[in-house]
């Protein structure tokens, strides 16, 4: 068995340098159009995530801003998805469990290049902070409650013709500690064509998502479909059940060893290790998937 090792490429280093330069530039300016920068709360391959406050209304929100014109495409794509989620012509309301947009615009980066940003609602809560305090039947009941809400979010996104491709605990927020909302749609992709028919899968398209919560098929670079979102949903539920553990998912210790992680996710690996501490109904879900 060959075990892969992590390495940092020149491309990674250059990307990190750009992120740091953008973060420094934004902190120095502190104002982007009508929004005041409160705190930079995250960074990714395409840009920064910032907690902001509207200058006039004082409404707190989240801004995603691109690094440069090349990464603005991802921001524009996410805006299009958010616009479709909030389309009043939808057959039913898709906004309860999917993040909502507030604003959209353009500004300049540290190199005076035109870049895009989007403003979305701020979701300060997370299910883990609530589930982690519970035990026994109370824990199972709360996991079931949040799990059904997350499943509704996935269902709503699928009804609009998209797959998420990055479902994980970090991409879930809460309203008032009881209404779950799925966000971070930057990796979402159409799985249907213009006629509403399911697109033919590509032979090999590369990994999209986060290794720990991705399906085995996705990790192997195969084209993703709705089933891969459901695997992500299922892994999130397992993690919630075991959130008090150092390793909520049994493959978590093998972060640097993808071959071992793939084995744990395969059909030949005993389900009792994957579903430790889970109720019997989880075994039925795994068989269905």
UniProtKB/TrEMBL annotation:
Transmembrane segments: none annotated. This is Protein kinase domain-containing protein. Coiled coil: none annotated. GO terms for molecular function: ATP binding; protein kinase activity. ATP binds at residue 64. PROSITE patterns: PROTEIN_KINASE_ATP (PS00107), PROTEIN_KINASE_DOM (PS50011). Pfam families: Pkinase (PF00069). SMART domains: S_TKc. Keywords: ATP-binding, Nucleotide-binding. The keyword Transcription regulation does not apply. The keyword Nucleotide-binding applies. Residues 35-289 form the Protein kinase domain. InterPro entries: CK1_Ser-Thr_kinase, Kinase-like_dom_sf, Prot_kinase_dom, Protein_kinase_ATP_BS. PANTHER family: CASEIN KINASE-RELATED. It comes from Brugia pahangi (Filarial nematode worm).
